[in-house]
Specification:
two-stranded antiparallel ribbon; about 35% helix; binds 1-O-phosphono-alpha-D-glucopyranose
């Protein structure tokens, strides 16, 4: 069955970049000229995703507005003949009926956020994209995963290597055997201490999962940080179904942290057709 739906959990507070996120959702913080979330939606759409389920929370209403049509704005752009930006606004419209918004009513963890989407996803495999993470890649990271999924089926998570002293910030896999860029695993663990980490391969924040994950999430006990962790339910699913980690081609940026956000802005500015030359000049100037 092909992957047509994606869940984007957007309920988190963004405490690592306060006060920037006090009044605007962290997912709407701009990276050059568009919200970080737009890059993630573009990534999903580029992978053939047709329906996006946003799991939101309190004070996230601006996200729903962002994906709506802004009639007054578009009308004024038409009158002013600003066709380029108008076309861009139209490009990012999601077709009517292709988005759902579900409230996660408490900060119970990523696993709980995903479980909240169960009725809309139904009984089919689906993608998850964590919007804190931007992945810059020639072929969208999710598209690479869908391609791998179409070959091997089962469940797939994107992974990449991090320095050993950073493993405790992530979910980490226990690799067993690598074929091409697909890795079979014996387990995975959420936010392990450095000395307990089974490898330095972190879970990047892109997943393709079978719907059986929802049954496991339903009874999942709290794990790392006292939260219901997706990683813990995936570790159980791995005992029942095929499960692969994909070493994708691309570079990830953690927009949920100050430095990661800055790195993302820098990388996207240096690659933006309109400002890349100017951005490079500014970087050189700043370095003296
Ligand atoms: C989440 C996941 C973790 C993953 C990380 C990627 O953690 O639980 O497994 O490695 O995203 O950014 P969080 O960043 O929400 O603490």
């Amino acid at each position: 069955m092909s992957i047509k739906k994606a869940v984007l959990p957007v309920a988190g507070f963004g405490t690592r970049v306060l006060p920037a996120t006090k009044a605007i959702p962290k997912e709407l913080m701009p990276v050059v000229d568009r919200p970080a979330l737009q890059y993630v939606v573009d990534e999903a759409v580029a992978a053939g995703i047709e329906h996006i389920v946003f799991v939101t929370g309190r004070n996230k209403g601006a996200i729903e507005d962002y994906f709506d049509v802004a009639y007054e704005l578009e009308d004024s752009l038409v009158k002013k003949n600003k066709t380029a930006i108008l076309d861009e606004l139209k490009r990012i419209h999601m077709p009517a009926g292709s988005t759902s918004f579900i409230r996660q009513q408490g900060a119970l963890g990523l696993g709980h956020a995903i479980w909240c989407a169960r009725d809309v996803i139904g009984n089919e495999p689906f993608a998850i994209l964590l919007p804190d993470v931007l992945v810059k890649a020639e072929k969208s990271c999710t598209a690479q995963m869908v391609e791998a999924y179409n070959q091997v089926g089962g469940n797939i998570i994107a992974v990449d290597a991090v320095p050993e002293d950073e493993v405790s910030k992530y979910g980490v896999i226990a690799p067993v055997e690598k074929t091409g860029n697909l890795i079979r695993m014996s387990g995975m663990v959420e936010k392990p201490a450095k000395e307990d980490a089974p490898s330095n391969l972190k879970i990047t924040g892109r997943y393709i999962l079978q719907p059986e994950i929802f049954d496991l999430l339903e009874t999942q006990e709290r794990g790392a940080g006292g939260e219901i962790q997706l990683t813990d339910s995936m570790a159980k699913l791995m005992e029942m179904q095929d499960f692969f980690a994909l070493e994708y081609d691309g570079q990830d940026y953690d927009c949920g942290s100050k430095l990661g956000y800055f790195e993302a802005v820098l990388a996207y500015a240096l690659d933006h057709p309109e400002i890349k030359d100017g951005a490079l000049d500014l970087v050189k100037k700043a370095l003296g």
